Amino acid sequence: MRFYEFRSLNMPVLTSTTAQEILRAREAGASCLPLTFNLGLSKTMAELRGDGAIIEGHFVPYEDLRWALKDEDAVYIVEPPGRLRKAVLFAEGKFYKLK
User: Fold this and answer.
1) pLDDT of residue 69
2) Nearest-angstrom CA–CA distance, 47 and 85
3) CA distances from 42 to 11, 14, 36, 55 (A)
4) Phi–psi pair at 33, nearest 5 degrees
5) Are 52 and 28 in contact (CB under 8 A)?
6) Bridge-partner residues for 68, per DSSP?
7) What pLDDT is recorded for position 6?
8) Percent helix, strand, coil in the chain (nearest 5)?
């Protein structure tokens, strides 16, 4: 019999709403933005720079955040070194997630 050990990864999880908040704050000229993410479990301060945001030490380009706006129902994981990956999807009455 095989045993598997699962460990959680401490990576920020964003929604399209969070991405929209970051982009609006940038347009308003803010240099930082308090965020609640991981579905409300975590709080942090995002640093807004000229070409992207730093979230929990991960640099995420604004272009990637604009991409996240295309799917309002999706949830995105911020993977090192700052790449967004779609984590879950709800389509046709069914719930899907990455494995």
Assistant:
1) 94
2) 20
3) 11, 11, 6, 12
4) -150, 125
5) no
6) none
7) 65
8) 20, 40, 40
Check residue 40 and report its DSSP letter: T
For 9-53, write each residue's pLDDT tens digit: 677 888 889 999 999 999 999 999 999 876 677 789 999 999 999
Is pTM, for the whole model, over 0.90? no
Helices (H), the chain: 16-27, 62-68
Q: What does DSSP assign to residue 11? A: -
Find out whether 77 and 13 touch, Cβ atoms under 8 Å: yes
Tokens 């996240």, residue located: 68
Is 91 strand, coil or helix? Answer: strand
5 membership: H or E segment, kind and range: none
Query: Which tokens in the block code for residue 42?
Result: 């975590």
Q: How many CB atoms lie within 10 A of CB 38?
A: 17
- Which tokens belong to 11? 């990576």
* Rounded Cα distance, 57 and 62, in Å: 15
